[in-house]
Amino acid sequence: MQSVARRLAARGKRIGLVPTMGYLHEGHLSLIRRAKKEAEVVITSIFVNPTQFAPNEDFARYPRDEKGDVRKIKTAGGDIVFAPKASEIYPADFQTYVNVEKLSQTLEGSVRPGHFRGVTTVVAQLFNITRPDVVVFGMKDFQQSVILRQMTEDLGYPIKYVVAPTVRESDGLAMSSRNKYLDTVARREALCLYYALKTARQMVAAGKTRTAIIAQEMRAVIRATCPTARIDYIAFTNMRTLESVRNVQRGTVVSLAVRVYGVRLIDNMKLR
Ligand code: PAF
Asked: Which of 42, 46, 247, 268 could be 83's S-S partner, Cβ–Cβ 3.0 to 4.6 Å?
């Protein structure tokens, strides 16, 4: 892959990269289409990255469909699929990790220690292997997009960094490969995340900006839609620093993680 990328660069081709863990849905395809607007050759990586899963998480059962993915990538205009084996990315004596120290500790990082260290390590490798001019990530994984931007800047990668909007189902549920785990009831009640975010947006539009009050209302909406839901966090933060804010201001993003019948879902919305 690295020599293919070198050859493309030598021929003056602009390379776009869309890193994924496969089991692609419309959200991923929108990233590929966006990359295609930015670059002549789009590489989509498919790699279920073991180092970003804790031992108690869903690595083994994470949905996979490589054949279907390749078909979808072609239809979306992707040019190259890079699907390495785990032993190629992490050979037996592998021992070098990349860690974005501060940003990786909050929100998802506080509930999933080590998760972002795995993400930044594999994405740094993907950058080194595919040598992209532009990379596209989704806003759906808001904190991930902030951390990877920081890594890209800190390590001086000469890469244009694009974050594309979240793609939602027609009823508002954010598309995610993990939605596959939801049965009919859970799928219906999973809308509690979107309803809570919409409530936050409506409150801000009505001039209410105290985040503690908005969070209280969001919790009530979640309880009403999915009484058994377990809220991991509802957080109001600056969209670049991830520092929490007491009042919604320019650049505030609200993000939340909720377990719906045991399926952990995340979502977010920019409020101003
Ligand atoms: O967002 C994902 O699918 C993964 O975290 C990523 C960026 C492909 C790294 O494994």
From this structure: 46
